[in-house]
Amino acid sequence: MKIDAAEFRFGCPHYEDIPPASLPEFAFVGRSNVGKSSLINMLTGRKELAHTSSKPGKTRCLNIFSINRQWHLVDLPGYGYAKVSKAKQLDFNQDVSTYLTERSTLEQVFLLVDSQLEPLEQDLYFAQWLQECTVPFSLILTKTDRSSNTTVRNHASQFEKALAEWKLKPNRIFNCSAKTGKGRGDILQWIETRLPKKSGKQGKGTKINLNWMKK
Ligand SMILES: Nc1nc2c(ncn2[C@@H]2O[C@H](COP(=O)(O)OP(=O)(O)O)[C@@H](O)[C@H]2O)c(=O)[nH]1
Ligand SMILES: [Mg+2]
């Protein structure tokens, strides 16, 4: 998939304020600092689209980007904030969990995990929760350029083992590096196969709900 257009559409901490469901959505989520913003910039080929920050917990909004006016990339707040209060953390998680369980156009979640680390319980619990809520997900092992191929392979197979033990079934597992661009083609191609085929005809009678703009 060639990315012709990537535009920031909307950013808000609360689920009830986000625009009504329209295009197919692919959401990206993971612990703070896992490399989510860097990956989004790498996938879209835009250097500053998702703000890359070294401060954990800075991305607190559900951010929606329109890609090729065909699908939405949704950047969800990271979980496991170190520097936000427990009460706030709960707040953010509530909005994320509502989004993940109620958004009708959500096609799939990409759960990012750090390839430099052995599988973390926190990530496995999150994957378990997704599966219990019947939210389809794939795993992305990030920052593969930072370790040797052997280390990445070891961690990947530890992950596969843990997934089997926890009876978790991701659609796919991708290896990625925002630095080298590894995995970009695979992920974009995978997303493309999930998009409705372009018919060349205008969709008839598609009602757009604009109520949210009137608030
Ligand atoms: N070498 C390398 N560094 C990365 C990669 N992805 C992210 N980083 C670095 O990891 C840190 C956290 O990345 P960021 O994208 O802000 O993580 P986020 O908190 O999940 O959005 C930053 O210093 C990035 O430059 C990668 O693929 N390779
Ligand atoms: Mg970020």
Name of the CATH architecture: 3-Layer(aba) Sandwich
Mean pLDDT: 86
Total domains, how many? 1
Using the coordinates shown, work out and report the CATH topology: Rossmann fold
Give the spatial strand order of the biggest sheet. Answer: 1-3-4-2-5-6-7
Q: Which cofactors or ions or other ligands sit in this model?
A: guanosine-5'-diphosphate, magnesium ion
Helicity range = 25-40%
Name the overall outline.
globular
Order of helices and strands: EEHEEHEHEHEH
Instruction: Please give the number of β-strands.
Output: 7
- Largest sheet features: 7 strands, mixed
CATH class: Alpha Beta
What oligomeric state is this? Answer: single chain
**Uncertain ranges:** none
From the N-terminal CA to the C-terminal CA, the straight-line distance is 36 Å
Count, helices? 5
Rg result: 17 Å
Going by CATH, the homologous superfamily would be: P-loop containing nucleotide triphosphate hydrolases
Structural class: alpha/beta
